[in-house]
Here is the input.
Amino acid sequence: MTTVTRFAPSPTGKLHVGNVRTALHNWLLARKTGGKFLLRIDDTDAERSREEYVDAIRADLAWLGLTHDGEERQSLRTDLYEREFQRLVEAGRIYRAYETSQELDLKRKVLLGRGLPPIYDRAALNLTEDDHAAKAAAGEKPHWRFLLDHTQPITWDDGIRGPQNFDARQMSDPVIRRADGSWLYMLPSAIDDIDMGITDVLRGEDHVSNTATQIQMFTALGATPPRFAHEALLTGSEGKLSKRLGALGMADFRDQGIEPEAIVTLLARLGTSDPVDPSLDSAALAASFDLSRFGRAPARFDEADLHRVNAQIVHRLPYARVAHLLPEGMGEAAWEAIRPNVAHIDETQGWWQVLTGPVTAPSFDDETRTFLTEAAQIAATLDWQADPWRTLTTALKDSTSRKGKALFLPLRQALTGHDHGPEMAALLPLIAQDEAVRRLSI
Ligand code: GLU
Here is the structure.
């Protein structure tokens, strides 16, 4: 059976790292076996859902390279939910209830006060048709609850957490539809997972108890539940997903010079003890993606790690991938020379300036100036196509007593205005010969 996964964001905000990790892992799980990855926009909450967030979600996934094999929107699927809802009502698995949130609060407090779990008492099940008619006549509209089956133990073998057991008697019958007819998340999601042939639901452990309920929904709807796996939540370096991390979207990372490959590479491994390997491409990442590698301890996301991985990624990015991001006129040889020295692509600007000039060199003592003048004379005679740095330094080593740092550093400083930087052998041919001679003649 082909693996079919889905990422089901609610478009009530922009994606943060935690959401993106869920999306990525579902994508990897599908890609690993040549399966399908679906994007499902959970926009049943009309008040909080915004079109701009739907667009941002699509744009973020595209930027990250998380291509999908189909997009669905819950707001366009309400006919199906209505049909399935009626079916469950007729089967006696959905019932009407009228308690206000204040009444429910009070019931919970009473139970807690007696040291009992705050489970809904199913009082509404005792209402007769006459009671319902009276409420309707008084203008009271019901909301709807799903009737859990207390006789069936709820079990599943979680892909990450292992065997799970829930007792329906310890759970409240969930409200699945509001009095105004709008849907809560639980039932439409189960209906969609069945209709879309989802084989694997991989999501955060904040959904574990929803899964217990939804397993009964799958069964009530006549379907076999999919495989479930729940990942430990993501935390920041300080131990919880900080406000800052929760608020940081992909656009913020992009503005910080983070490349999508860095996010993908890091998040693919986050939650496992496997090392982050920046050389892995997405096909290799998918091939090695394995739920059994994930632990139950919270996964720590550290922005400093992301910048470190970003540097490793940038050092490997081919010219064709970055050409449009580089300073005007900068070619492949310049990118390859500069690449090892930048952690973010926009730092190439500074090195491009070094290549094209002008540069500001430090002031040198007289002896060094004499040395540099000699260097300028030799540089003027060299074939600039044939490894000028090696020829220049070999000639200077022979004609002066300088070697090591005393030989190389003043040349680097005069030619680049910096004490450190990319390999001079790669850099020098990229500086025009007459410009290099001018820089050395000081
Ligand atoms: N829209 C739900 C959420 O964002 C989806 C959860 C799920 O994956 O089933 O939490």
